[in-house]
Amino acid sequence: MTESTMKAPKKALRPVKWMRENLFSGWFNTVLTLGVAYLLVTSVGPLLNWFFLDANFVGSDPSACTGVGACWLFISQRLNFFIYGFYPDELQWRVDVMFLLLAVSFVPQFIERFPGRKWLGLFGIFGLPIVGYFLIPGGSFGLEEVQSSKWGGLMLTLILAYIGIIASLPIGILLALGRRSEMPIIRGICVVFIEVWRAVPLITVLFMASVMLPLFLPEGVNFEKLARALIGITLWQSAYMAEVIRGGLQAIPRGQYEAADALGLGYWRKMGLVILPQALKMVIPGIVNTFISLFKDTTLVLIIGLFDILGTVQSTVTDPAWQNVAIEGYVFVAFCFWVFCFGISRYSQNLERKLDTGHKT
Amino acid sequence: MQTPPKDQPGKKPGIIRVEGMHKWYGDFHVLKDLNLTVDQGERIVICGPSGSGKSTFIRCINRLEEHQQGKIIVDGIELTDDVRHIDTVRREVGMVFQHFNLFPHLTVLENCCLSPIWVRKTPRKEAEASAMEYLERVKIPDQANKFPGQLSGGQQQRVAIARALCMKPKIMLFDEPTSALDPEMIKEVLDVMIELAGSGMTMLCVTHEMGFAKTVADRVIFMDGGEIVEQAPPHEFFTNPQEARTQKFLQQILAH
């Protein structure tokens, strides 16, 4: 039986053949290829020069920048401000501890065989916020208090995004379940909540949180501005999250609900053990999309006077001591955001692959 | 095939009692004045043309569908809006669906253990051992650690039967268990069902498999237009149907 041992023909292409087939397969493709090659050659060179070859890396004050290439000196000199904001220098170790814990919890998630990575991940989700709650503001356990108005930079961006992400997911799940509930009152409340929050721009939410909310609160009750912004971001985000998750819930075939019912699981076990694991897995791309857009939307807190990483850079590029460093500053901010968002995206792809049980119904 | 004795002593009479039951979908009257008493250990086959309400009927017995009038009493518990009663009944009534409805994110073994562990609070080890016994009984213990998506339709349906049996139900409902299967897989599922019928399980089975009805049923019920038109032991039902509608139906399905 030769048929049974036949292998699929290999598609091994040598570079020259590959180029002829893919880049120069006709006069039109040849023109395109040459055009793109020309653009690459003419743009990559100057970019490389600006980024690296003509750039200034060493020195300690603005005069060390010669002005031809990028002045990375600006970033390295002001890095402390970009990362910690106005957090007192001698207390910055507390933030460093949080950065370290964040890395320890999540970097192993990318390494398939890292021992105990599940526990590290769980610590990252549940333990980290608790540690941070005591460590960053201080004021207890003999730690000196640091007002939240002094927080800023990358640290503030991460706090906003992190809390927003891990709080909005469970709230979003509950809202999505509520919206599909058979109880009219619960369904009504959830529909109104979702439709109101989702229809309001985040900027408006932030303005309302910082300006209007204090008007409604009783005398003497005073949240910090940051806490108010966080609540606003979380509720706004959970409305979006709810709709993403609802999409997943609706995509689960009715038979799954019926089978769970027929086994007598009851509502919460049916949802928790049968429906949500499938629904959430199905909408991982949507959830991650929402996370990433939240991460970037945190920059809007600038308008209520909180200095996230973009805010700190923005305020520094107008510093008269440093001339023409805006591009460097924004490139740096973009790079920071890209690193985190790309990380989130890669992790979600990992997760999708791992959770695939080979069913496509 | 050995048919088990019909009148076993100590069997509860009327484990399912349906009295004057009506159901509407909106304005559409799907089920009209159904009356049925099923004794423990009885095997009932329900047949009828599509749209006759036979699936809807057995789905009312574990309240996957709600009835609006009349009574359904299962194992002494009346099905009402009371959620606790519904869950109690569902624990005692296993159901097998046309499209298997296995949970695709869990392995075969996890599918079988889910409800015993979470609802019956059986210790995991015990639940797994018992699940393996049932998988043995449906002849697929070797697939225990696969996911449903990796099995054939016939295998999936046998897992679904094992999953329902793991709750040690008093009654089993089958809603067209072989209708979604390729012809060569129907037999493996029917064999399992015949074996189950031989063990004295109370069974209600909606099916078009008339061979199965002849082999194992104590009673065949013919439904049409939301009504029970005729019920009789299989021999009588197939050889001497009383109603014109039954005769017409039998002619149509036995013609080829």
From TrEMBL, chain A:
<dbReference type="InterPro" id="IPR043429">
    <property type="entry name" value="ArtM/GltK/GlnP/TcyL/YhdX-like"/>
</dbReference>
<dbReference type="GO" id="GO:0043190">
    <property type="term" value="C:ATP-binding cassette (ABC) transporter complex"/>
</dbReference>
<feature type="transmembrane region" description="Helical">
    <location>
        <begin position="271"/>
        <end position="292"/>
    </location>
</feature>
<feature type="domain" description="ABC transmembrane type-1">
    <location>
        <begin position="154"/>
        <end position="343"/>
    </location>
</feature>
<keyword id="KW-0813">Transport</keyword>
<feature type="transmembrane region" description="Helical">
    <location>
        <begin position="93"/>
        <end position="111"/>
    </location>
</feature>
<dbReference type="Pfam" id="PF00528">
    <property type="entry name" value="BPD_transp_1"/>
</dbReference>
<comment type="similarity">
    <text>Belongs to the binding-protein-dependent transport system permease family. HisMQ subfamily.</text>
</comment>
<keyword id="KW-0472">Membrane</keyword>
<feature type="transmembrane region" description="Helical">
    <location>
        <begin position="156"/>
        <end position="177"/>
    </location>
</feature>
<feature type="transmembrane region" description="Helical">
    <location>
        <begin position="299"/>
        <end position="317"/>
    </location>
</feature>
<dbReference type="InterPro" id="IPR010065">
    <property type="entry name" value="AA_ABC_transptr_permease_3TM"/>
</dbReference>
<feature type="transmembrane region" description="Helical">
    <location>
        <begin position="329"/>
        <end position="347"/>
    </location>
</feature>
<keyword id="KW-1133">Transmembrane helix</keyword>
<protein>
    <submittedName>
        <fullName>Amino acid ABC transporter permease</fullName>
    </submittedName>
</protein>
<keyword id="KW-0029">Amino-acid transport</keyword>
<keyword id="KW-1003">Cell membrane</keyword>
<feature type="transmembrane region" description="Helical">
    <location>
        <begin position="118"/>
        <end position="136"/>
    </location>
</feature>
<feature type="transmembrane region" description="Helical">
    <location>
        <begin position="189"/>
        <end position="217"/>
    </location>
</feature>
<dbReference type="InterPro" id="IPR035906">
    <property type="entry name" value="MetI-like_sf"/>
</dbReference>
<dbReference type="GO" id="GO:0022857">
    <property type="term" value="F:transmembrane transporter activity"/>
</dbReference>
<dbReference type="InterPro" id="IPR000515">
    <property type="entry name" value="MetI-like"/>
</dbReference>
From TrEMBL, chain B:
<feature type="domain" description="ABC transporter">
    <location>
        <begin position="16"/>
        <end position="250"/>
    </location>
</feature>
<dbReference type="GO" id="GO:0016887">
    <property type="term" value="F:ATP hydrolysis activity"/>
</dbReference>
<keyword id="KW-0997">Cell inner membrane</keyword>
<keyword id="KW-0029">Amino-acid transport</keyword>
<keyword id="KW-0547">Nucleotide-binding</keyword>
<keyword id="KW-0813">Transport</keyword>
<dbReference type="GO" id="GO:0005524">
    <property type="term" value="F:ATP binding"/>
</dbReference>
<protein>
    <submittedName>
        <fullName>Amino-acid ABC transporter ATP-binding protein-like protein</fullName>
    </submittedName>
</protein>
<keyword id="KW-0067">ATP-binding</keyword>
<dbReference type="InterPro" id="IPR003439">
    <property type="entry name" value="ABC_transporter-like_ATP-bd"/>
</dbReference>
<dbReference type="InterPro" id="IPR027417">
    <property type="entry name" value="P-loop_NTPase"/>
</dbReference>
<dbReference type="InterPro" id="IPR003593">
    <property type="entry name" value="AAA+_ATPase"/>
</dbReference>
<comment type="similarity">
    <text>Belongs to the ABC transporter superfamily.</text>
</comment>
<keyword id="KW-1003">Cell membrane</keyword>
<dbReference type="InterPro" id="IPR050086">
    <property type="entry name" value="MetN_ABC_transporter-like"/>
</dbReference>
<dbReference type="GO" id="GO:0015424">
    <property type="term" value="F:ABC-type amino acid transporter activity"/>
</dbReference>
<dbReference type="InterPro" id="IPR017871">
    <property type="entry name" value="ABC_transporter-like_CS"/>
</dbReference>
<keyword id="KW-0472">Membrane</keyword>
<dbReference type="GO" id="GO:0005886">
    <property type="term" value="C:plasma membrane"/>
</dbReference>
<dbReference type="InterPro" id="IPR030679">
    <property type="entry name" value="ABC_ATPase_HisP-typ"/>
</dbReference>
<dbReference type="Pfam" id="PF00005">
    <property type="entry name" value="ABC_tran"/>
</dbReference>
